[in-house]
Amino acid sequence: MLLGSQPGVTHALWMATMDAAGTFQPAQTTTLGGIGASLASHDGHLHAFYRSWPSGWSTDGYGDVLHASFDGVSWTAAEKISMGFGTTVLRGKPSAASYVAGGFDCLHLTALDENASANVSTVWWTASCGPDGFAVPVSLVAVPLAFADQSLAASPDELLLAHEQLGSTGYGGLDIAARSYRYPRLDGQPGTSNAECSTGVCTTSYVDGDGDGFGAAPALRRCGTRPPGQVAIGGDCCDSDARAWPGQKQYFTEPRTCGGYDFDCSRAEEPQFPPRKFAGCMSTGTCFTGTRVCTGPYWETAGTGPVCGLSAPWRDCKVTKACLSLSECSTLAVRQVKQACR
User: Fold this and answer.
1) Which of 58, 68, 138, 240 is in Cβ range 3.0-4.6 Å of 78 for a Cys bridge?
2) Fold of 2-180
């Protein structure tokens, strides 16, 4: 999407969108008006930043920074961004950048506030990484000339600002200013340590879809206490089945909702009754008089056993004491048993 200003009394902003074939459609007018627009995506919306015209104009500045967002249908009403003290608002040439990946959805904004009389511009920076809006702007860098230009790029923990450099005969090349992204973040915003968070609390949580107390990847590291529906322990290999979780000791004869029988999240299917080397409790017994007991229960055929969820003949012993005769091992019961696994 492109957003541009139409010269005139109101400096109306026009919007042009690209279709699936990569062709820009004819521009359409918006409800916004100003100059120097910059766009970035955040929280499922497109955000526009631009300078007011002519309100907010002064001899040492180019207007207040206005912010509006687009949900695919309409634009919100434009709002000014507070500097956090009194009625002062952010002003200058805006440049926006966003970073959306790995649980981060951060919108960064810089505004280059020009002071023509002093021939110096201050770059202010603010960001929003959650639903609570923009943090109080802070000074990022001072550019030793007025009427400069800038460009902004963002990563999860660093900003890169390219701006014009003052040369011996006027405008020079480009300078790059980098700043680690470490100002205190509000609850609900992504964070990696307690020190980053305004409340001093940073938690790791996992979404627990089945309510078994274990969550599935990815881990969510955010400022503040753990939100409802999220848990502290991860590793759930099937978060849609409350029977499956790390360390599960039970065996089951029906598969998980995710498929398979790995209920203990060990990445293997462990049968409750694996094949045995010898069949147990055969009709003539498995003991010698006075020396052994009848062993079992086992699968009827030695060396075999059904796979998880399937049935096979099973022999139950009725005598488990020391054998006095072969007949004491001959009381048997044969039935179909379904293999359970975890």
Assistant:
1) 68
2) Neuraminidase (2.120.10)
